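Researcher: Sequence recovery benchmark, item below. Answer with residues only.
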């Protein structure tokens, strides 16, 4: 009897043992190097090909180079045998869930495993932006110390005491960020979600409206997922409602912030400094942002650690194994969780 077929898209860095274990119950196939989206469609639509019989697809963000986005066209052209798409990452904006839901194809992600690593990244950027550390590091590398004076001419930064942190998106990552920031002595933590959390999940943060978060925060911490409702959630209008000299930190997705509006706000001093791990058009990054000393930037390093990446990769394999053994994934995305067709699988 032939084994179920699992298509592994993207590189495996640390979970080789988990994949070997999966091969005991499944046949794992990969795309040839240099495969294009057009070739991918040819493979999955060829009745003589193993790719036309795949039951589970695992994918990384980098695999978009071979298949393109998991959009309406791709969802429509997948074989009828496909039961699930297992995405490696908490954010899954490369997958248009609606069209997979329409075909009753499960979509899973790795929601909780990334919280600690991303929160560490976020706290580094937040404290660095608050204290103007990027400015100082650049001046030091440019040889401006000691001739430019104290701290190589870096403007004075600010301490956490007395500052209000506005958390836009108090989920797993947002909560982990708040827990890490509390010992630094910030005055107050406020948050905004689509709806208020139960008290035991609020982590001593005060629930406020979106406009109240913008107007009251000294530091705005961005942690919401990217979807059609959050694209350019922070735009020129939103910047206009913020305090003068606000600090912005974003480790979620770049397109949540209108990058052109952010540049103007930085130039005007409305935003005093920013800590950015993500960019609207990454991996292409606007040179104007990169040239701003008040921007502390990283190349999307939120989960760039051996331990976290290994856990993520292994969890993706676990999701695939669960589909084969039980018919359903371990971690379904929220858009599908309450669908009747999915409930019947549990």
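Model:
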């Amino acid at each position: 009897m032939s084994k179920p077929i699992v298509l592994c898209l993207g590189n495996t860095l640390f979970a080789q043992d988990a994949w070997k274990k999966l091969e005991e119950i499944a046949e794992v196939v990969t795309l040839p190097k240099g495969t294009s989206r057009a070739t991918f469609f040819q493979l999955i639509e060829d009745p003589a090909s193993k790719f036309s019989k795949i039951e589970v697809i695992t994918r990384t963000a980098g695999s978009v180079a071979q298949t393109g986005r998991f959009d309406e066209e791709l969802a429509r052209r997948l074989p009828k045998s496909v039961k699930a798409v297992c995405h490696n990452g908490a954010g899954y904006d490369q997958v248009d869930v609606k069209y997979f839901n329409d075909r009753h194809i499960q979509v899973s992600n790795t929601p909780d495993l990334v919280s600690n690593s991303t929160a560490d990244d976020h706290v580094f950027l937040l404290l660095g932006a608050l204290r103007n550390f990027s400015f100082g590091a650049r001046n030091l590398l440019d040889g401006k110390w000691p001739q430019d004076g104290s701290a190589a001419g870096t403007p004075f930064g600010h301490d956490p005491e007395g500052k209000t942190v506005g958390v836009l998106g108090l989920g797993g990552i947002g909560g982990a960020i708040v827990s890490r920031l509390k010992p630094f002595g910030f005055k107050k933590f406020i948050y905004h979600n689509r709806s208020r959390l139960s008290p035991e999940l609020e982590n001593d943060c005060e629930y406020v409206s979106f406009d109240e978060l913008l107007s009251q925060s000294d530091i705005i911490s961005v942690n919401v997922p990217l979807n059609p409702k959050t694209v350019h959630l922070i735009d020129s209008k939103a910047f206009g409602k913020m305090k003068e000299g606000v600090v912005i930190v974003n480790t979620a997705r770049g397109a949540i912030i209108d990058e052109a509006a952010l540049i103007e706000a930085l130039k005007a001093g409305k935003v005093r400094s920013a800590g950015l791990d993500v960019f609207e058009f990454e991996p292409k990054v606007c040179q104007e942002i990169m040239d701003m000393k008040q921007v502390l930037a990283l190349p999307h390093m939120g989960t760039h650690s051996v331990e976290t990446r290994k856990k993520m990769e292994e969890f993706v394999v676990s999701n695939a194994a669960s589909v084969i053994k039980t018919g359903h994934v371990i971690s379904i995305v929220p858009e599908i969780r309450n669908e009747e067709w999915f409930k019947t699988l549990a």
